[in-house]
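explain this:

___
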Amino acid sequence: QVQLVESGGGSVQPGGSLRLSCVNSGSTRGGLRMRNVGWLRQGPGKQREFVASVAADETTDYADSVKGRFTISRDTAQNTVYLQMDNLMPEDTGLYSCYSRHISSPNTYWGQGTQVTVSS
């Protein structure tokens, strides 16, 4: 089992920044170097959508809506994934959840989520 704990959410004004963290613990089987991890979000009245990911080989991917504003990174020593969010907009509001999947397993683990609210 892998446990994921997110933190860093909050309320900010448009144009503000937040940094989300997701700590992977438990049976990570090699840590983040062996795992594909990322973030999804679900806004009010919307379906859950992909935000960003970083693969085991450090390849990153972003949703078009966040390119140039969000940056995903990882600290393999801390087994932590970060999502730096700059120039936040009201449409970025939602529950942000991280996921983690070993490269050789179909099992995906999810965190509880952290709320991000962008409003003036």
User: Anything to note?
Assistant: The CA atoms of residues 87 and 114 lie 18 Å apart. The chain has a mean pLDDT of 95. The chain has no helices and eleven strands.
